[in-house]
User: What shape does this take?
Amino acid sequence: MFGIGGWTISSRSVGGSNSSTPGTRVAMSDKVLVDTSAWIEFFRGTPSTCGDKVGELLRRDRTCVTGLIIVELSRGAKGTRELRTLDELLRTVTSLEVSDDVYRKAGELSYRMARRGLTLGTVDAVIAATAIRHDCPLLTLDDHFQQIRRFAPLHLA
Assistant: This one.
């Protein structure tokens, strides 16, 4: 068992290992990109559909992150120990490559949404473009990703 702040995660919850190094292309057909909001729900440790789904994805080694999700989660750590524990967990999941093409697609998506009067944060634009590029569904609790689906072929888990 290890804990992150008030979150306790048993080794039964995690399972699997990162079979690819960051940036390595892997088949994403069965992987799910887990957004920061879904991770936070999981770490709360209270029963919830989203938190339970993250736990199941971890057990089946189907979880993906991006560097920006790692940054957002790390920023929320409450101390060095929590940060170290979080880092240990995130090293067990697949990290998706973010190429220049992804950044261009994120910019185009932001542009199209802005022309319709909708603001899309840079981080969320890159996360959405990464999921689309890797044909990987996104697990999130953030409603604004529903809006993104009107402008791009984003699949939600």
In short: The beta strands are 2-4, 7-9, 32-34, 63-65, 94-95, 138-139. The two ends are 28 Å apart (CA to CA).
